[in-house]
Amino acid sequence: MGSHGIKDQVAIVGMGCTKFGEHWDKGVDDMLIESTNEAYASAGIDKPDVDAYWLGTAMSGNSGMDLAAPLKLDNKPVTLVQNFCATGSEALRNACYAVASGAYDSAMAVGVEKVKDSGYQGLSGAAKMPTDGTARTLTAAAMFSLVAPAYAKKYGVDEDELRMVLGRISEKNHYNGARNPRAQFRKEMSKEAICAMPEVAGRLGVFDCAGVADGSAAAIVVRAEDAHRYTDKPLYVKALSFVAGTKAGNLDPGYDYTTFPEVVRAAEDAYRQAGVTEPRAEIALAEVHDCFTPTELVLTEDLGFAERGMGWKEVMAGTFDLDGDLPVNPDGGLKSFGHPVGASGLRLVFESWLQLRGEAPPERRIETDRTLGLVHNLGGYPGEMVSFIGIVGSEEG
Amino acid sequence: MRGVLSAAGYVPYRRLDRADIAQFLGKGGGKGSRSVASYDEDTTTMAVEAGRFALRSAHGRQPDQVWFTTAEPAYLEKTNATAIHAALRLDSDVPALDMGGAVRSGIGALRTALAGSGTTLVTAAAWRGGMPAGPDEAGSGDAGSAVLVGEDDGVVAEHLASGSATEEFLDRWRLPADRNSRAWEERFAEPIYAALADEAWNQALKQAELSAEQVDRVGLVGTHARAMKRVGRGLGVAEDALTDDLGAAVGNTGAAHPGLLLASMLEQAEPGQVLALVSLADGADVLLFRTTDEVSDWQPARAVAAQVQAAGQVTYAKFLEWRGEVTPLPPNRPEPGRTSSSVAYRNADWKFGFVGSRDEDSGALHLPPSKVSFATGSTHMEPAPMADVPATVVTFTVDRLAYSPSPPIVFAVVDFDGGGRFPVELTDVEADEVHIGDRVEMTFRRLGTSEGIHNYFWKARPIRAAAD
Fold first, then answer.
1. Minimum CA–CA partner of A205 in chain B
2. Mutating which of B411, B435, B449, B456 best tests the A interface, going by the most A Cβ atoms within 10 A?
3. Taking CA atoms, which of A86, A194, A279, B150 is between 20 and 30 Å from B245?
4. What angle do CA B92, B93, B99 make, to 5 degrees?
5. Where in chain A is the domain with CATH 3.40.47.10?
6. What distance in Å separates residue A101's CA from the closest CA in chain B?
7. Complete DSSP assignment for B389-445
8. Does the residue B425 lie in any domain?
């Protein structure tokens, strides 16, 4: 019994990613075709040569046919997966395992979400099981807003100072997103302006929240030994870890909202699989699930990039900036991309695909000799979440 | 000996200053205030709160039937008392019955319980209003009341006699689909009520072998203000015997008012006093009681007087919003879907009774109830009723985007005394007055209504200084 990982058994050889945004003129099918065509072209593989598919969507499809039909796949197996906001990464994880098992020579993971057809603000439209009406009806913003005062109290940070730290996180992600043509928001914002926005939940303002966007992203994976048939620069899968929480944070008076235990557990597993012992020194870039600014703050500590209670200082010191010691969300993050639920997990991988292969545009290219990219994708809320962590690398071994 | 074992009123937290009405509309209003049910309260939830108070001060006596009366029922066709039954966690062999849709049913249910046998919890509630700037809107109030009627040990007020007089006349009326009641010219019914009251009053006094001067306290309730004044003057009781009818602070709470005034009188009563309830509503009804020695030991779970004191204001604009008279633009978020009847049925103990489960080994509390312990993995779980356990705010937030019938949602993570946590919506609170460490108690509320299905569940509210 154990979680052994599949380090260097599978490689990503092609990726595609649409521009994320309010695509009033594109439907689910349009975005699926766009991202998968880019992935096929990127790998130089023909559609019939991809053996199996994993489609991740949280609210824009109900079966594998939602991919097979628009792409007109010829009797291919298509599995639909769903895991809250960590749906895209779930598609990738399962596609990788399928190839590693030897069941298929190649597989595609594709994530998609069409969220801007609901007519509502924010995310909505997730499948609704009939309920007894007792579940809370809060927004995700309100749930994650619980983190900031808890963090401030635990570590003795002045709440106004912490407010500016959160603004600094958003400012950094806006700065990076402004340098990314695929991002939804491409405008730099000062932390002062971000902090002055009207409050949405707790002390979180509009610009502490990820945008809401449509989009799709796709990755093609093959056995590592076959990777060079498709590209000179494959990305080797070093680790894939996943934890589904028990929602114990809602029950346990010991839970204090300053950490996400599911992320800590997933990180331990991922670092063990990849053989990473000092993430701060070994990781070249991290794409993390910055659904709200306090989320990114806590993630820097849960992922081991900063000591407990020190993440806020590292943020202010610029550690996670584009030119910092460990760039976090160099592509602009959910903040700049918005969050098409099923697509985000694969979009997070796409930045490592560009950066580690030297294909990121000069204005946001990371100067580093490190070779590992970390991808973190979560779904749920503080106290009750699912967490994915993947590590990819440009070199074997 | 048959009589009252316990009685309680529930006065909602909010008050509307009647002067606000005139300020807003340029007319109407008056002096004092009226009680206002929160947007998440209805007659069923207010009866639940009153019933909880009444049973809490009943020395463990439990009813073998529960009745509910209101002129503003949350449901027609469907019994409302079953939700009260569930929230009070009464046994399945305790019948739960609604008693009519008229104001008179309030005193009528009480009279019937006193004339019957066994132990009956008579609950009543009112959610009363009227056309903006009219006398019904300003003069009415919202409240719940509950009287536990039974025999022998624990009777705090012995039932001495009942009097009643009935005639058919149309004074006030409302069609089932209408929001507001209408009334005939006041002068018409005044003499009719005076004659009926005289008849019922003398009937009761005769039956009790008492003279009017021997009655120490009178609670006078009714639907006709002018007739009540006249009848009050003509009862022949001492000048100061008429108890405060709470009109100045709460307003007239219709079917709930007999129970509310009875609870109020009992809170202040000494042993051996004769108390009367006189009701004028489509006839006249009189109930006479004599307090027993037990009344000196009887402690109300939460005195009506304390609830009248511990009040927070509501503006007239917010009042109009809560009554559905004006509908501001809601947040652009989906409204909650309807509650599933079958899921609610399966989870009735949780939804209506706020019963979680507790790990018998570690004591870890699970809200909602879980069959497997998060703390130990154990499956030895026992029911954990938590509705009456106070809690403390650990952290909180204000959600300005989520859908709510009255945004914003104030939401807190609370830890219960004795252990256990629940993230829960707060109510009866201003968004800017919540603090970590605040003490809260659970309260039964209506979260919303979708497709004609009311969604009842529990929220937490601050424990106010004047409480208990």
1. B400
2. B411
3. B150
4. 95
5. 10-115+214-232, 140-206+236-393
6. 32
7. --EEEEEEEEESSS--SSSPEEEEEEEETTS-EEEEEB-SS-GGG--TT-EEEEEEE
8. yes
Phi, psi of B277 (to 5 degrees): -110, 125
Domain A140-206+236-393 has CATH 3.40.50.720: no
pLDDT for residue A124 = 72
- Chain B nearest-CA distance from A270, in A, is 24
Q: Which helix (H) or strand (E) holds A390?
A: strand A384-393
CATH fold group of domain A10-115+214-232: Peroxisomal Thiolase; Chain A, domain 1 (3.40.47)
Query: What ipTM score was computed for the predicted complex, to two decimals?
Result: 0.90
Query: For position A122, what pLDDT does the model report?
Result: 76
Pairwise CA distance, residues A177 & A185, whole Å: 7
Please give the pLDDT value at position B468. 45
In tens, the pLDDT along A15-51 reads 999 999 999 999 999 999 999 999 999 999 999 999 9
How far apart are alpha carbons B263 and B269 in whole angstroms?
10
**pLDDT score of B467:** 45
| pLDDT, tens digit, 9 for 90 and up, residues A240-260 | 999 999 999 999 999 999 999
Best of B397, B449, B455 to disrupt the A interface (most A CBs within 10 Å) is B397
For A128, nearest residue in chain B (alpha carbons): B337
Distance of CA B250 to the CA centre of its chain: 12
B421: domain CATH number? Answer: 2.40.50.840
How would DSSP label each residue in A233-300? S-EEEEEEEEEE---GGGT-TT--SS--HHHHHHHHHHHHHHT-S-HHHHEEEEE---SBHHHHHHHH
Residues A323-337 have pLDDT tens digits of 999 999 999 999 999
Closest-CA residue to B178 (of B272, B317, B71) = B71
Looking at the 3D structure of chain B, how many domains does it have?
2
Q: In percent, how much of chain A has pLDDT > 90?
A: 95
The tokens 């009723």 sit on which residue? Answer: B385
| CB pairs A-B closer than 8 Å | 122
- Across chain A, mean pLDDT equals 96
A-chain residues within 8 Å CB-CB of B350? 132, 134
Give the nearest chain A residue to B413 (CA atoms).
A250
Q: Which residues contact B304 (CB under 8 A, 6 or more apart)?
A: B8, B9, B11, B246, B260, B263, B264, B267
Say whether the peptide bond before residue B368 is cis (omega within 30 degrees of 0): yes
Residues of A with catalytic roles: 85, 339
Tell which A residues from 308 to 367 touch B, by Cβ distance under 8 Å.
none
For chain A positions 227-246, those within 8 Å of chain B (CB to CB) are 246
Instruction: Tell me if residue B160 falls in helix, strand or coil.
Output: strand
Instruction: Please indicate whether, in this complex, the C-beta atoms of B402 and A118 are within 8 angstroms of each other.
Output: no
A137: pLDDT strictly greater than 90: no
CB contact under 8 Å between A383 and B336, yes or no, is no
- Which residues of chain B are under the pLDDT cut of 70? 465-468
Give the Å distances, CA to CA, from A143 to A87, B441, B461.
20, 22, 19
Question: What CA–CA distance (Å, rounded) separates B434 from B399?
Answer: 13
Specify the pLDDT at position B425: 98
Mean pLDDT, residues A127-139: 87
Q: A200 and B447 in contact by Cβ < 8 A?
A: no
**CB-nearest partner of A138 from B334, B368, B402:** B402
For residue A226, the distance in angstroms to the closest alpha carbon of chain B comes to 45
Among the listed residues A217, A188, A174, the one whose alpha carbon sits nearest the alpha carbon of residue A36: A217
Smallest Cα distance from B459 to chain A, Å: 10
**A122 is written with which tokens?**
């924010």
Burial of B135 (0-12, 13-18, 19+ CB in 10 A): middle
The CA distance from B30 to A62, in Å, is 60
Residue A127's pLDDT is 58
